[in-house]
Specification:
about 0% strand, globular, mainly alpha
Amino acid sequence: MDERTDAAGRIATGFNGRGGMPAFEGHLDDVALSAILSSAWGNTAGPVAPAEVAAIRAGAAAAPPKSTTVH
């Protein structure tokens, strides 16, 4: 799966940041983040709908925290 074209991957990158892109989780609402991820800054993927951002955000909030314990 290519996070540059996969909506869920692009949304996760928008939430968490990567490279020179800051993390926007907690700073932008669903409409604003979808607008940024749908922009034409060399992005060849299709647009990201606010509803897609909301669904990923709700799923992330409902998911249990990832364990950082090494077994």
